[in-house]
Amino acid sequence: MVVDDLVKHFRVPLGGTIKREWGLVKAVDGVSFTVRSGETLGLVGESGCGKSTTARLILRLIDATSGRVWFNGMELLDLSRRDLRRARREMQIVFQDPYASLNPRMTVRDIVGEGLRVWGLDKDLDRQVGNLLDRVGLNPAFAKRYPHEFSGGQRQRIGIARALALQPKLIVCDEPVSALDVSVQAQILNLLKDLQDEFDLTLIFIAHDLSVVRHISDRVAVMYLGKIAEIGDRNTIYQRPEHPYTQALLSAVPVPDPVKEKVRTRIPLQGDVPSPISPPSGCHFRTRCWKATEKCAEEEPPLLPGATDANHFAACHYAAPLDQAVI
Amino acid sequence: MPSLIEGAGDPVLSVRDLHTTIDTENGTVHAVDGVSFDLYPREVLAIVGESGCGKSMTALSILGLLPKRAGRIEGGQVVFGGRDLTTLSERALRSVRGDQIAMIFQDALTGLNPVYRVGDQISEMIRAHRDVSKKKALAQAVELLDLVGIPNPAHRARNYVHEFSGGMRQRAMIAMAIALEPDILIADEPTTALDVTVQAQVMDLLLRLREQLGMAIILITHDLGVVAGTADRVMVMYAGRKIEEQGILQLFAAPRHPYTWGLLGSMPRADEITDRLSPIHGAPPSLIAPPVGCRFSPRCRYAKDVCRIDEPPLRRVGDGALVSCHFADRPDWTPDLSPAAFAAQVVDGGDE
After folding, report:
1. A271-294 as b/e, with b when 16 or more CB fall inside 10 Å?
2. Residues 200-229 of B with CB under 8 A from A
């Protein structure tokens, strides 16, 4: 998949009593990246960075303001409704909230089999659904039950079975384990990895938990205020980050090792995340960055190749790895 | 278990054999099923466990904040300031809450009222316990907002909760909680809903306040990373009981209970590459009809027959660890935390 300069601006009312005033929330402000077949791209960032919106734009669950997305030889944002429908067989999504993403009035069989039915592939549906449930670690007999009879982790498995039903090439996982306990989270992450190997899936994995992302991703993109700050191979991002935001972010992630925690120094960030309605000029991160100069206010830094390897990019005029690892 | 803080002296809070139940439509849940622990002055005691283990219920029991008709303390004592809090009237408890024991929550809107200005709420709290004028209380509220690192505190005191960002709300809630310099602050998942950079700031703030005000903190969380950075001692809960308690360094260096190993082995780490996680299979037992024997045995790879019949008591093992496991003190049985050891436990597909 190739995403090119994806933009989504939301018009929002800003108040005003006699005449409505409008502002523009620049939720996604020019995002570009590639995902290779069979790999997992982790998309991380803090709240409001635009990662979930990006996921929805790729799948055309919401319409983009501008930009292009190529997938499987097709330009997705340009497709007719009919062609899009066909393309959607190849892309699926697993949502964050296991309680909201399953229709409470449908049985598991109906939920998992819905896609197959829509495409007329529902011959022998019970067997197909049974196989899918088994593949995600659930008893096929559960097909008759309703979502409320299951725990959060089990519901996520149902959601994953549903996503697998049409044998897609790409699955977007939008915070699939955030709502789950640690031990259940581990089960689901292992499952996703196994399924990826078995079905040669490409995953776009969106999360705010940097430990989870490190575990599952091959490459990682760090987002801030609607833009990609840094993107590259997973190990490089975590071991030798070059963008100041990534460095600060990683330094804040707590590690379950009290000895390490005692000696770590955190890079503090001043202030709060600016509003996406009026992000800072030039580099969006400059108001909180210790390296910021006038150039940062005037010129928005493009994604430039980093010092470490050719496939690593950071959007910073002064990107440089630190002497010590931050995590 | 004695404090790890130098010269701490006697515990400031003692919970003894606490039993708390909650009535639900499916039956009565034994949410806290015989929990005891001490809290010493100025220490940070972390209570960790996954959802349903009883950690939040323990905290609510201490302050008598259980759901009005459904929840009740069935037995045990909560000793604070020479009195058993479980025997106090609501009126007497109200004078303890906020003033001597304060609590902050995961959601700032649980602790703060959305229809009142922040400054007014804090000053109202102060005036409920101290004899000060409205003007003075408001001035103190502004000072508190400044103390917790809210910029422009005088201006912000006039804001409503929804006008604050997530991190700022937590700070405002903390400001209200420490207003009267309580002896104990109970923090129930204070940073779970926050971004990681904000989380780090809030945890730093809590530690700083602990130094400045000399209060003890009970930190309730499921996040072992946060625990590693802030706690002095850790208590692990499972299925309504305490199953392990150790000093922070000891717990991570040599966890004694298989559940604790399971937790540590199932966590992905941001500082290392974890190839395969070692999840704990199955799910915690129902607390409506708790199982016989060790509650963790159905999920434990080391379980033997005795585990399924006899509930292991909490006892001292090694140098100061408290564990409830029949096999915790076998000298030849050191936990093997290597992925390979846990991989044996991982069955194809997993299950619940």
Report:
1. ebbbebeebbebbbbbbbbeebee
2. 200-201, 203-204, 222-229
In a domain, B352, yes or no: no
Summarize pLDDT for A96-141 with one digit per residue, the tens: 888 889 999 999 999 999 989 988 888 899 999 999 999 999 999 9
**Dihedral, CA of residue B2, residue B8, residue B12 and residue B16, to nearest 10:** 10
Tell me, what's the ipTM?
A: 0.83
Same domain, B98 and B160: yes
Last residue of a domain, one of B173, B203, B231: B231
Total-model pTM: 0.87
Number of domains in chain B: 2
| Residue B143 near chain A (CB below 8 Å) | no
Question: Which residues in chain B have their CB less than 8 angstroms from residue A46's CB?
Answer: 195-197
H or E, element range at B234? strand B233-238
> What pLDDT, in 10s, does the model give residues B192-221?
878 888 888 899 999 999 999 999 999 999
Measure the CA–CA gap between B138 and B136, rounded to whole angstroms: 5
> In chain B, which among 23-62 make CB contacts under 8 A with chain A?
50-51
Q: Is B259 found in the same domain as B218?
A: no
Is residue B104 in a domain? Answer: yes
The CATH number of the domain holding residue B47 is 3.40.50.300
Chain B hits for A248, Cβ within 8 Å: 197
- Compare CB distances from B249 to A153, A250, A259 and report the shortest one's residue: A259
